[in-house]
Amino acid sequence: MQKLKTNKGARKRLKITKNGKLMRYKAGRRHILTSKSSKRKRKMRRCVEILGMEEKITKKLLPYG
Questions:
Q1: Is residue 1 one of the residues assigned to a domain?
Q2: Alpha carbon distance 57, 47 (integer Å)
Q3: β-pair partners for 22
Q4: Series of mean pLDDT values for 10-residue runs along the chain (65 residues)
Q5: φ and ψ at residue 60, rounded to 5 degrees
């Protein structure tokens, strides 16, 4: 059987935890930050777990994760 290719974009953007959960960063922290409140920006710092069907699809992009 052939080796499976890892999706390089997914590899750069996602982390797999010890328990196999997929974590991603929140969007919206690149620019136009002056119009966003401190609370909103602070909450965007955190990683969020990818859940449900999205997780199944995303795990296929990282076969050796």
A1: no
A2: 19
A3: 16
A4: 94 95 95 97 96 95 91
A5: -70, -25
Judge contact between 61 and 7, C-beta under 8 A: yes
Predicted TM-score of the model (pTM)? 0.81
DSSP 38: H
In this structure, what token pair is assigned to residue 17?
């935890």
Task: Give CA–CA dist 62/6, Å, rounded.
Answer: 5
Which residue bears the tokens 């929140």? 26
Tokens representing 27 are 């969007």
Query: For residue 3, is it within any domain?
Result: no
In-domain check, residue 46:
yes
